[in-house]
Amino acid sequence: MTVKPMPSPNSREILCQPQNMMCLHFSQRGYLNRRVANLYFLMISILSCTPVSPVSPITNVLPLSLVLLVSLIKEAWEDWKRFQNDMAINNTPVDVLLDQKWISVPWKKLQVGDIIRVKQDGFFPADLLFLASPNPDGVCYTETANLDGETNLKIRKALEKTWDYLTPERVSEFKGEVQCEQPNNSLYTFTGNLIIQNQTLPLSPNQILLRGCSLRNTEFIVGAVIFTGHETKVMMNAMKIPSKRSTLEKKLDKLILTLFCVLFCMCLLGAVGSGIFINRKYYYLQFSKNSDAQSNPDNRFAVAALTMFTLITLYSPIIPISLYVSVEMIKFIQSTQFINNDLHMYHFESNTPALARTSNLNEELGQVEYIFSDKTGTLTRNLMEFFKCSIGGEIYGTGISEIEIGTAQRNGMKVEVQKSSDATHEKGFNFDDARLMRGAWRNEPNPDLCKEFFRCLAICHTVLPEGEDSPEKIRYQAASPDEAALVTAAKNFGFFFFKRTPTTIYVHESHVERMGKVEDVPYEILNVLEFNSTRKRQSVVCRYSNGRLVLYCKGADTVIYERLADRDNELKRTSREHLEEFGAAGLRTLCLAYRDLSSEVYESWNEKYIQAKSSLRDREKKLDEVAELIEKELVLIGCTAIEDKLQEGVPTCIETLSKAGIKIWVLTGDKMETAINIAYACKLINNSMKQFIISSETDAVREVEDRGDQVELARFMKENVKNELKRCYEEALQYLRTGSETKLALVIDGKCLMYALDPSLRVMLLNLSLNCNAVVCCRVSPLQKAQVTSLVKKGAKRITLSIGDGANDVSMIQAAHVGVGISGQEGMQAVMASDFAIAQFRFLTDLLLVHGRWSYLRICKVVTYFFYKNLMFTLTQFWFTFHTGFSGQRFYDDWFQSLYNVIFTALPVIVLGIFEKDVSASLSKKYPELYKEGIRNTFFKWRVIAIWAFFAIYQSLVFYHFVTASSITGMNKAGKMFGLWDVSTMAFTCVVVTVNLRLLMMSNTITRWHHVTVGGSILAWFIFVFIYSGIVLPKDQENIYFVIYVLMSTIYFYLTLLLVPIAALFCDFIYQGAQRWFFPYDYQIVQEIHRHEPDASKVGLLEIGNQLTPDEARRYAIMQLPGEKSKHTGFAFDSPGYESFFASQAGVFVPQKAWDVARRASMKSRPKTSRKN
Amino acid sequence: MSSGEGSSQSSSKKSRQPKYSRFTQQELPACKPILTPGLVVTTFILVGVIFIPIGLLSLSASERVVEIVDRYDEDCIPSDQEKTAFIQSDKTNKTCVRSLTVPKKMQHPVYIYYQLDNFYQNHRRYVKSRSDKQLRNPENEDLTSPCEPEARVDNKPIVPCGLVAWSLFNDTYGFSVGGMNLSVNKKDIAWDSDKNYKFGSKVYPKNFQQGSLIGGGKLDEKIPLSEQEDLLVWMRTAALPSFRKLYGRIEQDLEANEMITVVIQNNYNAYAFGGKKKLVLSTTTWIGGKNSFLGLGYITIGGLCLFIATTFIVMYLIKPRPYGDPSYLSWNRNPPGN
After folding, report:
1. Do A884 and B336 touch (CB under 8 A)?
2. Which of A163, A523, A629, A1045 is buried most, with the most CB atoms less than 10 Å from its CB?
């Protein structure tokens, strides 16, 4: 057996090197940063080893290594865990065919071309070509939960030619060659050929078993290894880790850059000074031309240049070494300990806590100004329930949707919701109409159409039944909840689909011939024309047992209407009215149609179909084209309406968020009416708002559309959109100018958006939409979602957040600054692409207003504090330089200098970054406006930094001058004098005490950890200096020897220690007092309002989620049903795969998103029943 | 995030509800200090009230110190000669007589300091040019590497080596009042730690000032370093380019208006680099020598605090801000739309 990638003819043998596929590389975060930082520290370390260095190398290198060590240990630990995992996986045994026997070997020994056997529930060790299984028809079932989180089983089917290679004896006779594509990351596509016995057989994803999946419901399979190790599709996917950096961090880089400039200026100044200073007249320094270059007065330039390096080493603490490590640590704790563990964001029903998938973006959450939200599954529950239908021009279903209730309430009407007690209600079915239930439909005006309606529901789908065959116990595995709801509906109408084989669907039909009669009817499925986003429809060709050939089709109204036979116009008209009515009620609609086929028509078509199916190139496109040939002249049956309820707490959440100054945009694939209604229902839009609607569904557009000239249509549309935009924008400006309180809302549909996103109109669209409080984009493709997001992100330079649940939101999630995925009920694609995952939309309140705001506040404080303490420290050193003849003599002992950041001031700032909060969580939510401080970036403006810089300069002057000026005369009763090291140790003591006290001054919350660390840091300094000045070190100069004891024997020490820190903090205190008093921040007012309230906001939180209302209990029970976590493919309008489609249409290159491709292609992997070739 | 290939099976049953802890829910007990106007004013007044007395005490202590400062470098050199040549010459007579008047009674002990200005004892080249190992232990005589360029002479180690020792100050002072000599006590002028630990009692000067250039004072080779207190004082390098160093003590009261005659051996070359030399006689109090900086610092900060406190009170009276008034919230001050 040989495997050949198509372009290169050599077969390859690659060791299997399994690695964990989805581990998040924390080491990736700020990687570049750290590289620049490391480079800097390396440079400083090298400099400190040269004679120009004013400090000894060890003191400089050791703390640096300590800092690096901390991050290294973290990474090493993660690597170790990964390594152990790898080892375990690498050594898992698998059966390989050797000498006609199955021999167990570890995974890592696998080679391309090996034939292996995988038993039930085992994982596939590599990408395999599926050869045979003991199941009839050569099928096997796989679970792909590890790839995409989908728990429903997928069917794989081996090529018929290879079915009987089951026993070792048989398999060893197997000889063949595989030609296949190069390894790639597209999980659900595969093109290749198998050449056996001089026959070339096309291979499809259907014969490929991917590494990471597991075998289910199949005793064993035999397969040939195609890709191993890093070439497997899973591993090719694992390489891509989206990496985002927060805006604040980018600004931090600018700050660091500024500090570099300051450092350079300081050094330059000192260097010039040293060049001027050097003079032979200072004979006691013995400057002569025989001395080293730095002391050679004949070459002042060399002196200055070398002093430059000396000073760079000396002033290097101005760049905070430990800042990045500290911030990383703080963020890590924030995300792993706080966000992931917040009980407020734990969703009990789906048993899902919040998850921060990256800790890079915590503070970004505190600055979000625009939220782009998907509708289905994000604002709504995505629990699809069959709610209403229209058959043959008649509406059935008595329910009133939540949105209708909402609409009615807006119009001032009271709606009584009465539920008849006997109404059937199960998951996916919330329908009540006596005219249809229990066979009553036979008495309706159109019983035949009803029958077609139900059969269409029962036959035209890709659902897999699971479990027992009784109506009560069966479970449906469906690609989307819509689909499951439709099949469930058919079941309740008496058309119970209970069994699927690759070629047949069995339906348990009641009441068809006469009331009470029950029979099992098999339908032979001849072709399945699958759903995809271009087609927006799905068809099945089936043969009745009596030989009748029918094509059943269901899909979006627009595509179905285009393909209807030209008759029954009355029915079409009424059905369209019904569709609009359903749409207005916020329901998701689908049209059903059928077509009777003659066997000649079918046979001639089927040939083309088979041809298309076996083509190697553009198979999908060709299949679509062939499908087009038969999906025409359809007969309309009716339409279905499915309700998707709003998630709990969505309106409140949206209200809170908009109070917080966040603008929410809804981007949905739904129809305009549905979208507007949802927007009303969740309080995004209300009647007092001025709405601008830019729609392509106008008569004028339709007229041009009917003419059928695409070029003309495009031109007209563009003109139309441009005029509309201009009109709306002018009107909006009118409203703004008059200063009226009217809020504005913009509704735009996908087609118009396509033109509005044109570079020439983009600016106008942006200006208009930025002035609107709410924007609803309907009928948009995933690519457009991403485009709109980046329009605001890049055009308006505002911070954006995207939230969504499905694969169609992936591009939007990745485009925004922060991507949030809804987890717990949906597929994993959105979550996998996201930065944060929450279970419910309403948790955004906590995520943004509490965690985001606090993180922002904390990181700002930490960064500014670091900036301050290092600048101040370095400046004291700088002032000293002026008094040393610019020689670069250090003021502080080198150990003091290097341990300053690492020990004496390290921990309190981390505690600040972890515990600081201005107001409690409940107040954060009570006063959402506080969030605006983050949007305005109040705490990390250049102005704020300038204030800190001012205080740093002031304090450094106080430290240096107070201590030196007060120590020029006799220092004690015995008249003895201090030397340099006595003075500097005194100054350093003051610095350590002051810097730590300053931290307490800037804390709004002081826990006992603050006390411990601040006290501990000061204590650590004293302990250190006691020991350090008490022992003899193997150094040339023991400057600090006994210094602290000398110092502490004088009264001067204590007087200075009291005076200098207070004098230094004096200005800061005045500033803080005056600022609070005269220019208070909002949070300060809130603190004052609630100053007497104990922080008991969360008492009894433990009980939250355990007390369920009956309704919640029901929902919970539903959620707990196994196997029901089906995935949303956006059956009707909300579809994956748009992105690449639209992109290719527009000629834009869109990188293949793994999960997007997964999504699209996963539909292809569902039972596919082609006629045997 | 799912990790490992077998995680999917175990995930469904177990509750993933986070455990409650005060830490993870960010509910640690904490005090939340608010800088209320009252607190600000109280703090200022408190600091003022504590600081001013301390300042006054320190200041008065410093004021009680009697200090005589006499700059002699200019006057102790014949004005008609080239200064540097004069001071470097072996043949010139460098004796110089000065008379000082005692302004107030000086109680013994009266401390004698010499003060140098524009002398960079804190220059990097200077500070590092010493070997503490050599100073402590006679066995480390050869450890002179940091002492460049004054490490060795004729390849023999210099003890004590380095620029610091080499440039030892060597002016001497003799005092007399009314013809009667005042004895100068030169014991105990260095810190005990220097004497006992940093400088060895068995280390004797060797090859000192034997080179072609003589930087300053010479040392008696029979006396161990720990006893050479002038050297000890000199080698505790000063922080600033202008510094005082203790020379000795006069163990006798000096009465007001007494004339003291000082005989100075003006040996040290401060002329080359334009430095000043001063002789200082000073008494001490508990705070040390005459330095009003600390006292003034305390009084200034204390005074400023009281002043600021008053200002705050006045400003509060002029422009009061109701405490915790919701109308001061920014969104209430500027209703949206304006």
Report:
1. no
2. A523
